[in-house]
Amino acid sequence: MRTRRDRADNSSPPPTATEHTVAVDRPIGRRRIGVVEDHESVVMGLTLMLADQDDLELAVTAQTVPELLATGLTLDLAILDLRLGDGSSPTGNVELLRAAGIDTLVFTGAENPYMVRLAARAGVLGVVRKSEARAVVVEAIRAAAYGEQVVTTDWAAAIDGDPKLLDVGLSPRQREVLALYASGEKTARVAHLTGLAPQTVTDYLGRIRAKYAEAGRPSPTKTDLYKRAVEDGLLPMPQIPWDQ
């Protein structure tokens, strides 16, 4: 399957108070989406929502993540329900999808905060309630399909309320580099702002990623680093979430 984990040097500007995603340059082309959901009515609803979207294609539906992956289809995004009939865990499902190079957007009733926290920790792009308006759901799917973080109140609460987000022990200089880079600055700009050599900034970013990986909080992409910076209070949570 095609992986989209190569966005590490995204040059988009940092989000403003009126933005709801971590924006990346959207390539031209139709985004292919898979749905993992074992409630037929939800699948039908998503099918109708996306039917008239020129840039979004619901390519496959499955009742479990292994069933989805067994199709061998190239996908840009998986929409995942947290409660599946096979009893699988959100963490395990998201990790399977990440290993296949597929980003995940959780689509849930959000009735179980613990399960939402598990998904948030596993590295999903966002959490969207099934009760949201059609326009909100479609735009969240579109953003996630292009690799953008979808920041909702549920996602923010899951991160804010999770006591298991381990401190990775970044030095003050590493925290400064991370905050600048994750906010949208390019490596050369971070070097200019900090007085460091570009190669030194690159080395810092490598060490930062290694520390997060050791703490069980992998951050291979710039989007991941943005999420870690928000989780650890280095960047502010966007002020206007999707679901307001």
TrEMBL record:
4-aspartylphosphate modifications at: D81
Chain residue ranges for the region called Disordered: 1-21
Domain of life of the native organism: Bacteria
SMART domains recorded: REC
Recorded GO MF terms: DNA binding
Gene3D superfamilies (alphabetical): 3.40.50.2300, Winged helix-like DNA-binding domain superfamily/Winged helix DNA-binding domain
One of the GO BP terms on file: phosphorelay signal transduction system
One Pfam family it belongs to: GerE
Annotated ranges, domain Response regulatory: 32-145
InterPro entries, sorted: CheY-like_superfamily (IPR011006), Sig_transdc_resp-reg_C-effctor (IPR016032), Sig_transdc_resp-reg_receiver (IPR001789), Tscrpt_reg_LuxR_C (IPR000792), WalR-like (IPR039420), WH-like_DNA-bd_sf (IPR036388)
Key words of the record: DNA-binding, Phosphoprotein
Protein name: Response regulator transcription factor
